[in-house]
Design brief:
Blueprint (H helix, E strand, L loop, with lengths): L3 H20 L1 H30 L9 H7 L6 H8 L4 E2 L8 E6 L5 E7 L2 E8 L11
Antiparallel strand pairs: 1-2, 2-3, 3-4
Length: 137
């Protein structure tokens, strides 16, 4: 179970309640302003990443080998899109878990990434002329 979906809203509600208890309505206004600013920062980052990705071909990356070296299990799909500056080419059926995306470079090398619940679980580099490498976990 993803505890961030529960803990972050619970922490926000707790902060608002504590601010009201300690400072009254001015404390609530200050905490609410901070929470809204935090949400706007995340929204702005997401829109910037998606705007940059929209300007590039789907599934293209400058170097598949460098992408493979930078990947780590547990990073989000948004983080991988920010690294590649391109949306991945969907290899699995739409809206079916796990989601499999592929990024290919100009040499024909590609990285195939598997995401479960929006988090990277497995990735594999393929280079033409070489046998496929084992998954890097």
């Amino acid at each position: 179970m993803n505890f961030q979906k529960i803990l972050i809203p619970a922490a926000g509600v707790t902060a608002v309640a504590l601010a009201y208890y300690l400072y009254g309505w001015s404390g609530v206004a200050a905490i609410a302003t901070g929470l809204v600013m935090w949400m706007l920062l995340h929204f702005t980052r997401m829109m910037t990443v998606l705007r940059r990705a929209a300007e590039r071909p789907i599934g293209y990356v400058g170097s598949a080998v460098m992408l493979n070296a930078k990947l780590k299990p547990g990073v989000t799909l948004m983080h991988v899109i920010a690294m590649t500056r391109a949306l991945g080419q969907l290899q699995s059926e739409k809206d079916v878990q796990p989601e499999i995306f592929r990024w290919t470079d100009g040499t024909g090398s590609h990285v195939t990434c598997t995401f479960v619940g929006g988090k990277l679980t497995d990735y594999e580099l393929f280079r033409p002329g070489q046998p496929p490498q084992a998954s890097l976990d």
